[in-house]
Specification:
This protein is α+β, with helices and mostly antiparallel strands and 189 residues long. Helices cover 51% and strands 11% of the residues.
Length: 189
């Protein structure tokens, strides 16, 4: 009888120790999102939800393996860049991020620029700021979409330069500056 009691007590002690060890591991490993502010935590939650949607669609075989892999890698690249930006700036702000592969530049740009010309923080097409690359099984180029205020400031800054570099326009012969270029309709009696 004492042998049975000893085994039960020993099993109970082992179970308790395993539970304590698991609890200690869980509490000693801080949640990565807890070190960020509410904006970044919300963005990480958004990316987590996007991954769940992609996982769900994949489990129901609605998407191809290639589509699943690329979008999972894209979400990983967005997460990595967001963490990099917020950690570097120590500011709880995440711009609108875009992650594209080299063959997807047509999604963002009407006339895709050459990758070789990109410089960090370069503004491209007065719309995007180049942030760098993230390798997540394939190379993703990350951009931050400029907000309307940044775009307006860029346009305002570039307008005086553009006006100075353009030659003065001269009106065509026979037409004065204030005259309309449309002709009067002729009425036939």
């Amino acid at each position: 009888m004492s042998r049975i009691v000893c085994r039960v007590v020993l099993a109970f002690v082992i179970a308790c120790l395993a539970g304590v060890a698991a609890f200690a591991q869980h509490t000693s490993r801080p949640d990565k999102s807890s070190e960020f502010g509410p904006v970044m935590r919300a963005y990480l939650g958004y990316l987590r939800n996007e991954q769940e949607v992609v996982d769900d669609r994949n489990s129901r075989r609605e998407i191809s393996t290639q589509y699943y892999r690329r979008n999972s890698n894209r979400i990983h690249a967005l997460r990595e860049m967001a963490i990099r930006l917020v950690t570097k700036s120590a500011n709880d702000y995440v711009p609108e991020l875009e992650a594209v592969t080299g063959d997807e530049f047509g999604i963002l740009f009407e006339n895709p620029p050459s990758v070789r010309t990109f410089r960090l923080n370069q503004v491209i097409a007065n719309t995007f700021r180049y942030l760098g690359t993230v390798n997540s099984s394939e190379t993703f180029y990350l951009f931050a979409r400029l907000d309307p205020y940044e775009q307006a400031a860029l346009l305002e800054k570039n307008q005086p330069q553009a006006a100075a570099s353009q030659p003065e326009t001269i009106p065509a012969k026979g037409q004065s500056v204030g005259q309309s270029s449309t002709r009067q309709r002729r009425v036939v009696p």
